[in-house]
What we know:
CATH class of the largest domain in chain B: Alpha Beta
Number of helices of chain A: 7
Bound molecules: flavin-adenine dinucleotide
Helix content of chain B: 25-40%
Largest interface: A-B, 55 and 61 residues
Shape of chain B: globular
CATH topology of the largest domain in chain A: FAD/NAD(P)-binding domain
CATH superfamily of the largest domain in chain A: FAD/NAD(P)-binding domain
Number of domains of chain A: 3
CATH architecture of the largest domain in chain B: 3-Layer(bba) Sandwich
Shape of chain A: globular
Radius of gyration of chain B: 23 Å
Strand content of chain A: 25-35%
Structural class of chain A: alpha/beta
Distance between the termini of chain B: 50 Å
Largest sheet of chain B: 8 strands, mixed
CATH superfamily of the largest domain in chain B: FAD/NAD(P)-binding domain
Radius of gyration of chain A: 22 Å
Oligomer: heterodimer
Helix content of chain A: 10-25%
CATH topology of the largest domain in chain B: FAD/NAD(P)-binding domain
CATH architecture of the largest domain in chain A: 3-Layer(bba) Sandwich
Amino acid sequence: MKKTNCDVAVIGAGPAGLAAAxxxxxxxxxxxxxxxxxxxxxGILQQCIHNGFxxxxxxxxxxxxxxxxxxxxxxxxxxxxxxxETMVLDLSENLTIQASSKQGILHIxxxxxxxxxxxxxxxxxxxALPGKRPAGIMTAGTAQRFINCEGYLPGKKILILGSGDIGxxxxxxxxxxxxxVQAVVxxxxxxxxxxxxxxxxxxxxxxxxxxxxxxxxxxxxKRVEGVDFAPLGDEGQPQLDKKxxxxxxxxxxSVGLIPENELSKKAGIQLDKITGGPIVDKNFHTSVPGIFAxxxxxxVFDLVDHVSICGxxxxxxxxxxxxxxxEHFSESLSKVKAGPGVGTxxxxxxxxxxxxxxxxxxxxxxxxxxxxxxxRNSQNEVVFKKKFRxxxxxxxxxxxxxxxxxxxxxxxxxxxxxxxx
Amino acid sequence: MQIYxxxxxxxxAVGTAIARELSKLSIKVVVVDRLNDVGGDASKSxxxxxxxxFDAPPDSLESRMVVNANxxxxxxxxxLDIPFKRTGAVLVAVTETEEAELPSIMAKAHANHVxxxxxLSAKEVLELEPAVTPDVRGGLLVPRESxxxxxxxxxxxxxxxxxxxxxxxxxxxxxxxTFNENEYTVESPKGEIxxxxxxxxxxxxxxxxxxxxxxxxxxxxxxxxxxxxxxxAAPIGTKRIILPVPTKVSKGKICTPTIHGNWLIGPTAxxxxxxxxxxxxxxxxxxxxxxxxxxxxxVDARYAITQxxxxxxVRTPGGYHLRTFENLPGFLELSGIRSTGLTSSLAVARxxxxxxxKMGLSNKYKKHFVSKRQAIxxxxxxxxxxxxxxxxxxxxxxxxICRCETVTEAEIVEAIRRKPGATDLDGIKRRVRAGLxxxxxxxxxxRTPQILARELDIxxxxxxxKGTGSEILDGTTxxxxx
Lengths: 421, 482
Ligand SMILES: Cc1cc2nc3c(=O)[nH]c(=O)nc-3n(C[C@H](O)[C@H](O)[C@H](O)COP(=O)(O)OP(=O)(O)OC[C@H]3O[C@@H](n4cnc5c(N)ncnc54)[C@H](O)[C@@H]3O)c2cc1C
Ligand SMILES: Cc1cc2nc3c(=O)[nH]c(=O)nc-3n(C[C@H](O)[C@H](O)[C@H](O)COP(=O)(O)OP(=O)(O)OC[C@H]3O[C@@H](n4cnc5c(N)ncnc54)[C@H](O)[C@@H]3O)c2cc1C
């Protein structure tokens, strides 16, 4: 069995993987392999032809493919070995990668690995949608790919379930294509995506939004013919007497993204039950020494800029680890937890000496106005605080805290609103 | 016009099993089905269990068929390369009343000539299946209850029959059937067929087919069964089929491993009138979980990756009716095959052949019957050496299309090229599992249509989920712009 050795291998060539590969090389790794199952580099960005990418990192508002191109060009200038149409099938605890390609099964033995596999969309089955199973039901991301990359419409009379960003962006896109977007139906009290998308994608086009409603039936044997949905009562039960029936030929689902961690599980990496991604430290080191994770594989991000920043850090750390200059965090180090009002936190562990500021990415549990974010240590002392006008679950919070003591401490982030503060 | 010896109406488990049996003879056989693919009705949406018949009504035709069919699966699944596993079942009694039922279930099994059941204490149940509820009071081991891939079962029977000369016409709905002197005319909007013998294996619609010939002494209505499929990674932990103590109306809600490593929980039992009512309902889906957690507390709807529902063809008057009619020589009706037909199909097929012979069908067996069929080589299950060999022979084996189930382009292409082959997305899903994993086609949902379009030489807009009318796309992005 022939093994290819290298310093750093990056799995997935979306924005996280591209940034990680570039930064690994720039930080001294010489043999860098970037593995992508698709034909092209760029990941999910290739289908996001709307703008809103790169305001922070590039200082410019770009479309997804333009943003990706910026990084792809850098990768192509560097001697980075890009293996496209190559799918990683297995990753072991001692960092051996097994991948399949048209040339056969490849074995790669890197000194460090960066996981950048992104995420996948939740499906109809995962939320147990009732009704029939005709054609015309697909995830918003699949529809986006059909429309933006292939030039086909999924249908003409559309209902969208879930108000995630992809759902709202697709509502606008389909409206602009001339399709009739009947409604966006959301189970929660608030939208799942960014507020700018609510305004720019739904309100600007008078697309009705039904909050706190659920689908109770899907009609149609061959192709979707209609969808019934009803408001939720106080106990969370659908109020069928207030049921709304709409005729439509397509149901798009934008009901959440799940980090893609099949490989992480194979390598025995410890996953965070809440984010669904690996537990990482500030270097994006996972629980398995030498394996790093960045981008949507670690936690679903709202803005690509953060993904690239994390990717760069993960790539740099992987290069250092490959040279033997970075240690793995040990069990006894500080943990960071999501306390009251906080949904997720990244990183979840702090390692090494506190050498300067530490960046955290958090998500709020609910919409909170005049919110106070606090970080407490094991002694229950507040060591960091910051005020926000409004925090929303859909919009990631990123904060930088200084002077944290990283030795065997337990930190908890909490968010307090003006009412309960 | 072509005259067939036998026309079989319905390409479910029963229709394809009898087709394969008849393909051993030197006769011309055609199988027609209204759906776009074989096995598209009850035979695709069931519990996928090969029963022993231990709980069948004793002395019934059903008992005889199921009990006799069970032992046939080892050889058939070996010959036709069908995924099949003798897992065994554990019937679990949780309440005192249920525990008191066990001896009579055992007695019923003996009355059905199923003599290999074993009475289990609560401790023995938990030793065999530690994930069963600690409240268990006792149980029964039914060693030969087994699991199968029901799609591949029907597909394999159909492929093997085709290899032996049987024709399949899909998307061919029988709209009338007439008998004139000594032959039958089978009509559909797509054309006509003439045959000397006709087999009614139309399941839920058996009443309609027989009524074309003036037989109206029975009706078939649907009894819906809904299911959840759980993720392979779900921490369920059971190895055998876990059965409840049956009630008068149904076998109850079970938890069974599937042959591909998922778990299946269900079914409900809902009496309906509408023969198209294949939808799942919020109540049905929550009933399943509520029922099954009593047996296996680890079950949770959170692990669900998909749901489906099937319609049992309930006959009134009830029971298996495998009948011929004096005034209709050559017509064989297979009706009332309600909730055990996946299993019984193999025995029903042989029994049915005998009835056809009695009506004068020539029983001359072919000299060169092809008895074996090979499955599409499965990349997912191959070891590394085999994988490299597959890729070397066909580089498309190196191209993984469905990442959840690790299905390669080569397998999808082969599923389309076989006869009868997949002509739609559901057909591919059933043959090679592309799109059946936890992302349910989120990723391959795009690529599989492209492969189908290329292989069938159609445009991607003509690609369907399950036949005409179920196109997955609706024009190009420019079509609606003024
Ligand atoms: C519809 C949509 C709209 C968005 N809109 C905006 C926006 O307006 N502004 C903004 O800033 N951000 C936006 N985002 C977010 C941003 O695009 C994502 O956060 C970012 O693309 C995530 O990058 P990633 O590298 O982690 O994952 P991805 O881009 O998903 O890349 C993962 C890559 O890994 C590959 N891969 C996975 N598994 C394997 C394997 N086993 N072997 C080989 N390769 C593998 C995949 O093929 C893929 O190319 C949007 C996202 C979506 C989906
Ligand atoms: C919820 C549920 C659970 C079950 N569990 C099990 C189990 O675990 N084990 C077991 O052994 N059995 C089980 N069964 C029973 C089993 O699925 C059926 O008995 C079996 O599939 C019947 O096969 P069939 O070929 O008779 O019917 P079908 O598979 O329904 O085939 C009939 C075919 O006839 C076609 N047809 C109908 N009308 C026309 C027409 N006018 N023209 C042309 N074609 C027509 C239909 O399209 C269909 O393909 C279960 C059934 C259900 C619903």
